[in-house]
Amino acid sequence: MAAREEKKTLEDKLQVTRHEMIDRFKLWETEMEIKVQDSESLKAKLEEVTRQMDSLSEAEEKRRGMVQEMDEHQRYADKVDQDNCKLREHIEELKSDLKVCVENVRRLKEEKGR
Questions:
Q1: What is the distance, to the nearest Å, from the Cα of residue 76 to the centroid of all Cα atoms in its chain?
Q2: What residue ranges do the domains of the chain occupy?
Q3: Nearest-angstrom CA–CA distance, 53 and 45
Q4: Which regions form coiled coils (predicted)?
Q5: What pTM does this model have?
């Protein structure tokens, strides 16, 4: 009889231990599912950040292209300004030459009229 009671006690303890192990496994399984979900969430966030970085890289590349284009336009505008300045100087020289020519024609007319 004592052996039966001891066997029953051991079986009860084994049953409790079995239920504890099942509960622990279920808890562990739930924790792993949460970790997988967290991992998937982090992966999605990483992919989004990667897309944003790619987008920023493209924007930076476009910005550099625009800056380069603006620099080219500025160099062209500077060249045009230089050319305009040379043309103004040449116009002034031509005006001076024209004045001399007009003065020479006037003198020639005066001399011819005398």
A1: 28
A2: 1-88
A3: 12
A4: 32-111
A5: 0.50
